[in-house]
Design a protein that fits this description.
Distance between the termini: 41 Å
Protein name: Xylanolytic transcriptional activator regulatory domain-containing protein
Keywords: Nucleus, Transcription, Transcription regulation
Subcellular location: Nucleus
GO molecular function: DNA binding; zinc ion binding
Mean pLDDT: 81
Low-confidence stretches: 139-144, 331-376, 388-396
Shape: globular
Largest sheet: none
Order of helices and strands: HHHHHHHHHHHHHHHHH
Number of helices: 17
Number of strands: 0
Pfam families: Fungal_trans
Helix content: 55-70%
Strand content: under 5%
Length: 396
């Protein structure tokens, strides 16, 4: 919830509410012995708390707490799949969900700190959760299954598992028995993974549904971001970065999807913002510069107004890159901005929703047609523009 929404709905400032509930959770956790506990519900609460705290610079050092949560999970044998234990189907699925939430937190935290995850693949056998429909039983992939609450979680768990194989060091790959891939091989692997998701999941999304849409859109955004990072700058790199960041910003306008988007929005937008700012730091590349700066300042202005993220290490990287890009562009204390571009002043706050509409193409959000028009067909030309993976002369 934004500060304005908190004031409107709860009659209190967002920062005040965050501090109150953060303090309450921390006091409750201080009363239990996390180092020896086998309480499943406690671990659920702890992982949820750390997942939220990762998005709050005023919260605890998540990386320091992560080892405690991982040790708890191993003590409770969450790293062993329930099919190898004498437990019910329901308990098996619940344990799978919690384990992969922990793997997700571990991976995203490693990205935040430019390190590698703690959890190693050979140490666990826990499978992905099944898609669960209202009857509470695993379901084949049908339109009902893709509208269930587990659809978003399952696809992002698969995305995390794939991400671990692509973005970390060769040393990490060796420790996990992953193949060390060249940029061209990574490029092809991303294409193959995307096609697998299309065949297994997205092709079954047959009607407009907020959960299906936000799942397909966010997974596609992460995959394009990953492919851009693998490709490195090429002749169409900036153009695609701009368009993809605009699409990420446009998701803010999809009100029905907000209950899921908050969990991944920052990672999507900051990742694309970092890629685009890195590109703007390159000297002598002027094509598309003004349009790139417009979308950069739009995204930067929004997050500059969110105090929960400003103190994080990732935000410090973005601030440093932006300062460097501005210096390279020739701006110092007073800026003569061409073509009507206005850079974000120091006292800038979040961009009002109504100001986002024109620049971020919200008209392309779900309307009539299939759920994946925005996410699959619209993203297709990004993947074509970045090559098929069998050769990257067009991007390298």
């Amino acid at each position: 919830m934004s500060s304005a929404t908190c004031l409107d709905k709860l009659n209190e400032d967002r920062s005040t509410l965050l501090k109150r509930y953060r303090d309450g959770v921390e006091h409750a956790l201080a009363r239990v012995d996390l180092s020896s506990s086998l309480d499943f519900t406690l671990l659920q609460a702890y992982i949820l708390y750390l997942t939220c705290a990762r998005l709050d610079s005023h919260g605890p050092a998540v990386k320091a707490h992560l080892s405690i949560a991982i040790n708890m999970a191993y003590r409770m044998n969450l790293h062993r799949d329930g099919t190898t234990q004498k437990i019910s189907l329901f308990e098996t699925e619940t344990r799978r969900h919690l384990w992969w939430q922990l793997v997700t937190l571990d991976t995203r935290t490693a990205e935040d700190h430019n390190t590698t995850p703690y959890i190693l693949e050979p140490s666990f056998t826990t499978q992905f959760p099944c898609l669960i429909v209202d009857a509470g039983l695993p379901s084949p992939i049908t339109s009902n299954a893709t509208t269930s609450s587990t659809f978003f979680q399952l696809l992002h768990f698969e995305l995390i598992s794939f991400t671990r194989r692509i973005i970390f060091s060769d040393t990490f790959n060796q420790a996990n028995d992953y193949h060390s891939l060249s940029p061209i091989q990574k490029h092809k692997a991303i294409n193959d993974f995307r096609q697998s998701l299309e065949t297994r999941y997205f092709s079954h999304c047959g009607s407009i549904n907020p959960l299906e849409f936000i799942t397909a859109a966010t997974v596609q955004l992460f995959l394009v971001k990953m492919k851009l990072a693998v490709c490195k700058p090429g002749h169409n790199f900036r153009l695609i970065c701009v368009e993809v960041l605009q699409r990420a910003l446009a998701l803010r306008e999809h009100e029905p999807g907000q209950k899921w988007l908050w969990l991944v929005q920052r990672d999507m937008e900051w990742g694309m913002l970092e890629l685009l700012l890195n590109d703007l730091c390159a000297e002598g590349v002027n094509e598309g510069r003004e349009e790139a700066w417009r979308v950069v300042e739009q995204a930067y202005g929004y997050w500059r107004g969110d105090e929960t993220g400003r103190g994080t290490g990732k935000w410090a990287v973005i601030e440093k890159l932006r300062a460097r890009a501005l210096t390279i562009r020739g701006y110092e204390s007073e800026i003569d901005v061409p073509n009507g571009l206005e850079l974000v002043p120091d006292n800038y706050g979040p961009v009002p929703v109504e100001e986002l509409t024109e620049d971020t193409a919200t008209g392309e959000l779900p309307g009539d047609g299939t759920v994946c028009e925005w996410s699959m067909e619209a993203f297709e030309h990004y993947f074509q523009g970045l090559g098929a993976g069998d050769g990257m002369s067009n991007v390298l």
